[in-house]
Inverse folding.
């Protein structure tokens, strides 16, 4: 399987031969299905936020900022936006007259509503002799317009990452989603000195364009938001790539005979997150942004989620300090009440009659972990994982974000539980990654390695299998302390296809 001439390639990527052999064994054995106990709900694991709660937790957040809390915003932004333009690529394979397309065809919508897109002004520069404000002219030029949107001789959007695509119109100049993340960070991720730090994970080939876009907009955004921006970039680490295999589990090799590797999925970014230095970290996807006039509600909830995370952190730190000093039945009862009220759990039944010192030791271990507060949106048909109760290895109920790929959908009981979920995960997380002594947790110690999955891909006509590592907000955070909060659907505005930019949430006021 692995030959001596492969060792140099492995060394370059920082992957050991033993790690590859373990991955091949994983292909043979597969990942165990995750057994969900029940969906989390508003009466069982998800906290509803009232206006009073929002006001109270915002106050906590601002108080901590005033104490020199250092926030950071973490934005996964690697990967090209090619899937966003799938319908446009399909159209160019067999271009027809726009009149022949159905009324709701995505390409017909792009052409007829083209002036509403923030990139329309840039696109017009490729057609100086045509009045693209005229719909009839746009219809007659449909294949050329579509080509200039996605191809290299035009805007090249099919090869750019979403962070560099113009998302929103403004009176002075349109903004990319990257720039919108700066504007948003200025409203809730700024320290008391007026600095907001944003960390983007990008692909190496996109680093220079990201930096160029940043330098083009930084001065105006800093002036407009009265914020200084500290912008960091990092790459998915090569040693997190996973080997691809053929259906018979033999390593797949490229035309040069080299082992073929694929990125391990967004779960690989737990290593990038692990390198971040901050007291509180907000995580949000690159495509989930809105224009500034829509940010008020989002800002309120982000600050409230941050305040809740900090209040829970402060309580945990206090309990850890008290447990380290002494143990008593009264203190144990206090901590258990906190677990039930704040974390919606309790310790395992086998500890109920254990000695006080054994209970104390368990609670110290249980509380001394990273914390995540996750916004959850009512399920209205959007794809994505959801909040569920899962028993951990100690048979303790834990809250987890679970994807359908982790469930045995051939089991009717598990399928019924999964489909009974009332909420889904919009990737709206607030994380505490430092312990009670101010030291960073090693986040790699809190991954559940059994929560990845195997996918099937096609490469050059070959069917291959690939390993997806435990997802960043799934298995990579499985052993964190977790709190779920209901957030309004208005705070979730992803751009999965080009026409999502035509939704009211992405249009000017």
């Amino acid at each position: 399987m692995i030959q001596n001439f492969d060792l140099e390639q492995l060394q370059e990527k920082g992957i050991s031969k033993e790690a590859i052999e373990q991955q091949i064994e994983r292909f043979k054995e597969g990942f165990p299905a995750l057994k969900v106990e029940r969906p989390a709900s508003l009466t069982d694991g998800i906290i509803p936020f009232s206006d009073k709660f929002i006001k109270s937790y915002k106050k906590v957040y601002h108080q901590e900022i005033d104490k020199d809390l250092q926030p950071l915003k973490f934005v996964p932004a690697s990967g090209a936006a090619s899937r966003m333009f799938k319908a446009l690529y399909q159209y160019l394979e067999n271009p027809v007259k726009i009149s022949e397309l159905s009324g709701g065809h995505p390409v017909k919508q792009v052409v007829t509503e083209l002036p509403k897109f923030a990139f329309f002004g840039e696109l017009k520069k490729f057609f100086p002799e045509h009045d693209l404000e005229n719909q009839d002219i746009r219809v007659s030029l449909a294949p050329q317009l579509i080509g200039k949107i996605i191809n290299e001789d035009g805007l090249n959007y099919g090869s750019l990452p979403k962070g560099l695509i113009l998302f929103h119109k403004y009176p002075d100049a349109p903004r990319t989603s990257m720039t919108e993340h700066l504007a948003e960070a200025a409203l809730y991720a700024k320290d008391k000195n007026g600095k907001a730090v944003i960390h983007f994970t990008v692909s190496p080939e996109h680093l220079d364009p990201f930096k160029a876009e940043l330098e083009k907009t930084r001065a105006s955004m800093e002036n407009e938001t009265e914020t200084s921006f500290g912008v960091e970039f990092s790459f998915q680490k090569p040693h997190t790539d996973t080997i691809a295999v053929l259906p018979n589990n033999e390593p797949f090799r490229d035309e040069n005979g080299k082992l073929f590797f694929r990125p391990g999925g967004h779960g690989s970014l737990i290593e990038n997150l692990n390198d971040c230095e901050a007291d509180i970290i907000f995580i949000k996807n690159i495509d989930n942004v809105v224009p500034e006039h829509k940010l008020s509600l989002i800002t309120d909830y982000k600050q409230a989620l941050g305040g809740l995370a900090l209040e829970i952190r402060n309580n945990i730190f206090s309990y850890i300090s008290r447990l380290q000093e002494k143990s008593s039945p009264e203190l144990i009862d206090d901590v258990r009440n906190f677990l039930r009220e704040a974390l919606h759990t309790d310790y395992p039944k086998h500890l109920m009659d254990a000695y006080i010192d054994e209970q104390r030791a368990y609670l110290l271990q249980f509380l001394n972990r990273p914390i995540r507060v996750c916004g959850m949106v009512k399920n209205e048909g959007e794809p994505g994982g959801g909040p569920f109760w899962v028993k951990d290895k100690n048979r303790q109920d834990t809250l987890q974000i679970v994807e359908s790929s982790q469930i045995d959908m051939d089991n009717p009981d598990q399928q019924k539980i999964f489909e009974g979920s009332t909420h889904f995960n919009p990737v709206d997380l607030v994380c505490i990654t430092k312990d009670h002594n101010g030291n960073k947790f090693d986040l790699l110690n809190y991954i559940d390695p059994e929560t990845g999955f195997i996918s099937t891909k096609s490469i050059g006509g070959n069917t291959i299998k690939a390993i997806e590592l435990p997802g960043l907000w799934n298995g990579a955070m499985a052993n964190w302390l977790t709190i779920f909060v209901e957030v309004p659907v208005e705070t979730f505005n992803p751009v999965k296809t080009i026409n999502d930019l035509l939704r009211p949430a992405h249009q000017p006021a």
Summary: The longest strand covers residues 371-378. The CA atoms of residues 126 and 154 lie 7 Å apart. DSSP finds 15 helices and 18 strands in the chain. The chain has a mean pLDDT of 94.
